[in-house]
Specification:
With about 160 residues, this protein is an alpha+beta fold. It has one domain: Hotdog Thioesterase (Thiol Ester Dehydrase, Chain A, Roll). Helix content is about 40%, strand content about 30%. It is built from 5 helices and 6 strands, in the order H-H-H-E-E-H-E-E-H-E-E. Strands 1-2-4-5-6-3 form a 6-stranded antiparallel beta sheet. Helix 1 runs antiparallel to helix 4 and helix 4 packs across helix 5. The longest helix is centred in the middle third of the chain and has 20 residues. The protein starts with a helix and ends with a strand.
Amino acid sequence: MHQNAFIELVKHPVKFRMFLLSKLPAALFSGVRVKYFDEEKCEVTVPYKWFTRNPFRSTYFASLSMAAEMSTGILAMSNVYGQNPPISMLVLKVHGDYKKKAIGITTFTCDQGSLIKRLVQEAISTKEGRTVSLNSTGRNKAGEVVAEFLIEWSFKVRNQ
């Protein structure tokens, strides 16, 4: 029930942009956008433009990393949103492999929503923290892999 409410919030263009402005202004100003989102999968795009480029005429690694993290983080947030007891989530590690120059729109995809859901439920039922490494793959318009990220998340029941 809570997950559907969060999905609708992310899909609402004005509400989600207000969220980005208040919580992640760098993502908003750099043009990072949620392209697709459901319970299992999230696709996030980052453009190649003045604000996201590096001196080597490609998308800056930090901009790519931000989009990759968001593709996993949106799925994670959808599973902790409105939970009782509340669940905290935190990025523990980020590992990125860059395969090809990113010179256009790069789309990062994470499709591990069911794994996140199971781990959050385990954290609630056991009252013990859980960690998971989530994959996010960035592809260019031609479908070629530009970068692959592994984002490690921690989920814990908050002390009340």
